[in-house]
Design goal:
The chain is of the alpha/beta class. Helix content is 45%, strand content 16%.
């Protein structure tokens, strides 16, 4: 890799977009500009209705990401003023990933800790190699996981497991990550790419409007307030879409549906 290569690579295959965290010489550790670029990329993809699924992976097979590049801290994160600026950028990116309406799949090889764990946890489905490693040992750095970051972790595993991960600071294996709900499935390391892409294709074969509605409804149900009548009524709007007409006709005709996102 040269210094001119982008730190976030974007590859399109029909409706499936693969984003690669591209700093293999640093096992894909994040820099401040890299956080910014990832957020901008998600913001752009969010308004692109041709996107059916987003796959996030690290370059190579040694790591998804270990989080932030610690060597950068001395110059850009050495005091609270700098850290607040850095944190604002990180949190803007976290919101961009969380708010993205498209389904997201994390393809996890190797190390997935700290900020890498946060990003993987924001994905809807997480496919892990059986030899991957997980954790958030930031207490050993004297570093706090701020509200938007800790919120993403707690939403994924619940407060009790989040306490365990943060207080002990252990790095643990894929089987324990599966048990804790951090990953969706474990496969042998040489099958991760195939399984993650097959997962993305299964998602892409579904009705995109339905996926967006399901993501919206699940996020809404996580809020601590009653669902309104108007919100309940939205659950029936799918019956007025072209995709619904195509879907049930394709089922009756025993063929694959051709969804248009309309």
């Amino acid at each position: 890799m040269t210094g001119t290569e982008p730190t976030i690579l974007v590859q399109r295959d029909d409706g499936i977009v693969t984003l690669t965290l591209n700093r293999p010489h640093k096992i894909n550790a994040f820099t401040k500009p890299m956080w910014k670029l990832l957020g901008e990329t998600f913001t752009d993809l969010s308004v692109d209705d041709s996107v059916l699924c987003i796959v996030i992976r690290g370059a190579g097979e040694k790591a998804f990401s270990p989080g932030n590049d610690i060597s950068e801290f001395e110059t850009v994160r050495s005091n609270s003023t700098q850290a607040e600026d850095y944190g604002h950028l990180m949190h803007t990116t976290i919101r961009a990933i969380r708010d993205c309406p498209h389904p997201k799949v994390a393809m996890i090889h190797g190390i997935c800790v700290g900020g890498g764990l946060e990003i993987a946890g924001l994905c809807d489905i997480r496919i892990s190699a059986d030899d991957s490693r997980f954790g958030a040992p930031i207490a050993k750095l004297g570093l706090v996981m701020a509200y938007p970051e800790i919120g993403a972790l707690a939403d994924l595993v619940g407060p009790s497991v989040a306490y365990e991960i943060l207080l002990e600071g252990r790095v643990f294996g894929a089987e324990e990550a599966l048990q804790k709900g951090i990953v969706s499935r474990i496969v042998p390391a040489d099958q991760v790419t195939d399984e993650a892409m097959a997962t993305a294709q299964r998602i892409a074969d579904g009705a995109p409007l339905v996926h967006r509605w399901h993501r919206k409804f699940l996020n809404r149900l996580a809020e601590d307030r009653p669902v309104s009548e108007d919100e309940n009524r939205e659950g029936f709007e799918c019956y007025d879409t072209e995709d619904f007409a195509e879907g049930y006709k394709a089922f009756l005709e025993k063929r694959k549906p051709d969804f248009k996102g309309r």
